[in-house]
């Protein structure tokens, strides 16, 4: 029989997996808490204790990670990418992107195309380590 901690972790993973699958869609804490079968307040506290960041911050970072990939692999506009990854405001997208990556989307795009390596390595290398800390490069 699983322990209470294992059960809690499984519930949080279920909600995080849903966030990963539907990152570009409007997601809210009440819906995610229902997926985890806990109250909204308990969901926020437990998610943060489990993953080290709030659900909102995790979702923003996930969206920025996807935007980073699209900025360097497509020629689509920053505005189109902003909307496609789930932001509804270009200003918010630019501010959050700069907070996570350390530079604005347009400057990040100027770095050029991603190197020809397996995508799993490129994505791991590009993944921001934590919200608010710019990666060292």
Q: What secondary-structure arrangement, pairings included, does this model have?
A:
Elements: H1 4-21, H2 29-36, H3 40-51, H4 55-73, H5 78-84, H6 90-101, H7 105-109, H8 119-126
Structure, explained:
- The chain has 137 residues and is mainly alpha-helical.
- The protein folds into 2 domains: 4-52; 57-126, Homeodomain-like (Arc Repressor Mutant, subunit A, Orthogonal Bundle), CATH 1.10.10.
- The protein is 65% helix and 0% strand.
- The chain contains 8 helices and no strands.
- The chain has helices at residues 4-21, 29-36, 40-51, 55-73, 78-84, 90-101, 105-109, 119-126.
Provide a brief overview of the structure.
The protein is mainly α and 137 residues long. It is 65% helix and 0% strand. The model has no long low-confidence stretch (mean pLDDT 89).
Give average pLDDT, whole number. 89
When the domains are counted, the total is 2
Structural class: mainly alpha
Over the alpha carbons, how many angstroms does the gyration radius reach?
16 Å
Largest sheet: none
The unreliable regions are none
How far is the first residue's CA from the last residue's CA?
46 Å
SS elements, strand count: 0
CATH superfamily of the largest domain, please? Homeodomain-like
| Number of alpha- plus pi-helical segments | 8
As for the CATH topology of the largest domain, it is: Arc Repressor Mutant, subunit A
Shape: elongated
As a percent range, the share of strand residues is under 5%
Query: What is the level-2 CATH architecture name of the largest domain?
Result: Orthogonal Bundle
Helix content: 55-70%
The CATH C-level name of the largest domain is Mainly Alpha
Order of helices and strands: HHHHHHHH
């Amino acid at each position: 029989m699983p322990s209470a901690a294992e059960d809690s972790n499984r519930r949080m993973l279920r909600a995080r997996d849903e966030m990963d699958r539907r990152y570009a869609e409007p997601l809210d804490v009440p819906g995610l808490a229902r997926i985890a079968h806990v109250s909204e307040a308990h969901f926020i506290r437990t998610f943060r204790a489990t993953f080290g960041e709030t659900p909102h911050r995790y979702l923003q970072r996930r969206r920025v990670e996807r935007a980073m990939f699209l900025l360097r692999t497509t020629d689509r506009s920053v505005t189109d990418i902003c909307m496609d990854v789930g932001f509804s405001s270009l200003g918010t997208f630019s501010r959050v992107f700069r907070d996570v990556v350390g530079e604005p989307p347009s400057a990040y795009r100027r770095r050029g195309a991603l190197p020809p390596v397996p995508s799993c390595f490129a994505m791991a290398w590009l993944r921001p380590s934590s919200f608010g800390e710019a990666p060292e490069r």
